[in-house]
Structures are given as structure tokens and as C-alpha cells.
Amino acid sequence: MAENRNLDSKQSNVSQLSEIRSVENGASTASGSGDQSVQNHSRPAYNAPKVAKGEEKNILRAKCLVALIIVLAAATVATSAYVLVNDQAQSNFENQFMGYASKIASVSRQKADQLFNALESFSVMVGSQAASENELLNTSWPFYTIPDFSVKAERLVDVIGAMVPLMLVAPIVEEDERDAWAEYAKRMNPVWFEESLRNEGNTDLTVDEVLQRTLPFIHTYALAEGFRVEEINRPGEVLPNFQQYPLRFDYGTNAMTTGFDILSLVRGKDLYEITKRLLRPTIGFENFLIDRETIVAGSQVWQPIYNTADTTGEERKLVAVLAVQLYWLEFFKNVLTQGQDGVVVVLRSGCLVDYAVLYGINATDYVDNPDDLKIEDVITYRIDGPDVILLGNEDLHDPNYDALEVTEVFVDLGFDGEDLPEGSCVPKLTLHIYPSEKLEANFRNSDPTIYASVVVVIFIFTSLVFLLYVYFVGRRQRIVMDRIVRQDKIVTNIFPTAIRDRLYDAQAQPSGKGKRDAHGLDGLGDGSNDLGSAPLADLFPSVSVVFADIVGFTAWSSAREPQQVFLLLESIYNSFDKIAYRHDIFKVETVGDCYVAAAGLPEPVDKHAVLACKFALDCLKKMRESTIKLEVSLGPDTADLALRVGIHR
User: Fold this and answer.
1) How far apart are alpha carbons 397 and 395 in whole angstroms?
2) Helix or strand or coil: residue 303?
3) Which of 137-141, 317-321, 352-356, 413-417 has the lowest mean pLDDT?
């Protein structure tokens, strides 16, 4: 009896293994005439639990959300880095420009103040020295020659700076003094010519050569007639050039400018009228011809020379003018240092110049509106370190930099317009300083792009690490999910879907272990078992139970190997499973060679007895077909095996 019990236990284990193998490998195909009909009713495709599908969707959504966050963060940080670095470069550019502009304005004011102070000192020195000598020699202006004028003028230029290309003294000569002054100049010219040539170190010229190019009378030039020389015959005072530094010939006539009447020029006459009326220094805009082809923009500064050293006394009298030419191109040189390039300076005079009056032309011959020839003097320069480039005689700054404009008044002589002669204007020189693309280019580099690219690369690297992490986590999850799915398939094949879901739900509920009922017993008062969960038990009042066992199986299996026993049970039970599915029969269990099934489970069916009978008949038929087919591989007595079926309602 013990041996039979062990054999039954062995057969039961083999039967259970057969069920598991059938679940894992899929349904085996049985041979015979009835195989096709059974195969057409195989189980439907397995569906993973809804919880697993939902979790997969949630994980996918989370991954997409994280990826989107990373992309947005990368774009935001990269853009922020680019903007911050670019703003920093812009700030550095603006601050640097403001520093350059402040330096240009400060140095320009300093040079202008230095210029007027030096000219005033020179004027006081000349006036004082002339007053002393005239009193001693019983002479007076305009018959006065400044001793060592070239030496004194050279020192004055050193104080003012290299922006002074020409400085001259022009005495005021009354109409009745013209001939006498011309004779005086003719007599004194060789003296100061020689001093000038010696002091300037000019060995290319001699005094005689200079005298040959000097006209012996007060004159002017008819510019419209090719610089034709004309002697001054008009009534009134004249203002002839006399001593000058350095010695220079007129580029139009190749003659010395000594004796040229400054009042014959419109601008010269205007400056003289202002200086004479107000007895103060004045300034005017003018274009100078520095050679036969080159005209540069500049200004004339007129410093009055009085007959006394007292420049403020009421007895002072204007006797001469110290006129200085300025080239603004030279004025702004060496203001900045090497590498400080691209600063645009627009110099405005604030005065409208009537070019029709200036050049003695009829305005309507050139323009419809005469006011179109009234133009403000404007010059534009670009300062590149110590060098200065003339851009043109108009405002040529880049309008894109208007917001960074720095305005500075650096020459304001404080004239009241009401005190000036009618139609006169004293320039109020104003600097309008702007940056340029050349300056900005020094601060516009690839740093913003580099920083943004570095941020993007960091995020790409982080994303790759994240993707690698996601890959390995996903791989692990797939392994775990595959294992869970295989286990779920086993559970699904053993239990109906509804029971399976209830089992999962029960596992998800909190355990009732540790709770005591009214009698003090753990887990009994609430219907739970020792595992901490309530048993799944439902009442089905109307079902039909089918019991089927193999007749002769014990004797047959005792003479067979376990593999042969397994093959038999697997083939038969697999066929029964397919028949059960076709007739909506629920397989309860297999115990050894006994197959237990029920009709009306887990869903109630009215004709459960009919279904049970049909199932039993098909199983009997399939049993006969299977044993005949397996007889070849399992032995001749296999076909002797029969199926015994019992139905209980």
C-alpha cells in the first residue's frame, strides 16, 4: 500500500509538471482526425494584466516628461547663458566706450583750456614788451616787430601741442598808415626772416629767396581769377599778416603770406568785427588748403593783443591780433592709446554758415532755396588709438549707436548773441561721441556661443547618461516583467481571469495579520487565515462536476520511465484543456491520472449538465485517439488505456 501511495504521489507531481510545461511552452498539437477541430478553438492571445499595462504607460509618460524637461532645461539654460554672456559683453563694450568718451572729452577740454590760457599769456607778454619798447624808442603799433618771434612761437606751440600748424601776428593798420607800414615791413622782413630760418633750422632757403617771394605791399587775391594778386585800395583799416611761424608760402601763389590782408576774407572780417567789438578771444570754423590738393577742416582762434599789459582795463586798445590755425585732425591725435580704436567724434560748431556770402556767389544759381546754402559746420572723425581719420564734413556716425551718444561742450567762449554784430556767430564747439562697429567688434566674440554650446554639451551628456540609465532600468524591468508575465500566464491558465484578478487584489490589500477578534484570536474573527488574507470562496448552487481518470494507468506507469509518463499525461491533458475551452468548461485540477472539471464555473450557465456531457463524450473520443497515436512511442499496451468518466450535478 505504501508503494502505491508513493507511485500516486509521483504520478500527481508528474501531472502538475505537465500542466506547467503546457502553460510555458504553449499547447501541444495532438495527431488524429479530430486535431483540426480542436486547434481551431485554441485559447485567445494572452493579455497582460491591466495594472502592468497601466504602469508601462505611466512609465512611458514619465520618460517623455523627463525628456521634455531636459530639453526645455537645456534650451533655457543655454539661452540664458548666451544672453548673460552676450549682455556682459555688451556691458563691457558700453563701459569701455564710456571710458573712452570720457577720456576724449576730458583731454579735449584740457587742450582747449590750455590753448586759450597759453594764447592769453603770449598776448600779455607781447603787449607788455611792446609797451615798454615803444615808450623807450618812442614808437607805437603797428610799427612793432616782436623780437625772437620764432623762438617764442615755437615754445608756445610746444605748450599748446602739435595741433597748431600756423601762428601769425597781424597788426591793425589804419588807411593813412598803409604806405608807411609797407615800408616798415619791407625793412624789418629780412630781420625776422633770418631769425626764423635760423631757429627752424631751414637750410634749403635763404633770406633773399624768401624776400623774392614776398610782395612789398598790402594785398589780397582774386580767388575767382586764379589767385590774381590785387593791391588793397579800399578805404578803412587793414589787417595784414606780418610775423608768422613757421615760415610758409601760400599754396595758391607760392608767395609769402606776409602783407596779405586778412580782412579781405569774409570769415576774417567777421572774426575781426567780433574781436574788435568785444575785446575778447574768438574762434571760427574754416577749411584750410595745406597743399594744392588737400583741404583739411580746422578753426582760427583769434587772441587780441592790446597796447598795454592790462588786458581788462578800460584804456586798453586793440592794436593787433594773434591768429592761430588749428587742424582738428591733429587736435584729437594721441588722445587714446594703441588698441583703443573705433570711437567716432562728430564736431559741431552750432553756427549756420551762409556759403553764398562766404564765397561771393549767387545762391539761386545753385539752389532753389537760398537757405539750403546755410549749413552748420560739422566734421566727423574716427579715433583709432593715437591716430585720427577724417570721415567727412558732415555727420557720418552710425545711427544704431544714438542711444550711447556722449555730448560734451569743450569750447564755449560765453558770447551773448545780442552783443555780436548782426549776422555774426561765434561757434560753441560741441563734441558728439559715438561708438562704431569697429569698437564693438573688439567685444563681440564667440564667447556667448561657446558658453551656450558647453551648456548644451553638458545637457547632451547628462541626457545620454539618463538614457543609459533608462536603458538598464528598462532592461531590468523587462526581465522582471517577462518573469511576471510568465507567472501570470501560469496563474491565468490555472485560474479564470476573474479569480486571478481577485487574487491580485487580495494581495494588494493590507494584511489583517495581527488583528484580534472578540475572542482574542488572531485573524479568525474577520474570516482571515494564517496568511493574513481572507480565503476566496464563492457559492455556486448549480454546477456539474466531471471526474475523469485513466483506467489501467497505475500498472502502465509502473513499467514506464518518468519522461514517458509525462508525455502521456501532457498529451491527454492538453487535449482535454482545449476541449474544455471549446465547451466553456472550467478545469478545476488534475490529481495523478484524475482530471477534474466543472461546468457552470466561474460564470453560471443554465445548461451546465449538457455541457458537462458533451465535454465527457469528447474527452472519451480524444482519449481513444491519443492512446492509439502514442502506442508507437510509449508501447503496445498504451492503446489498452481507457478513460473512466463520472458526472455529478
Assistant:
1) 6
2) strand
3) 352-356
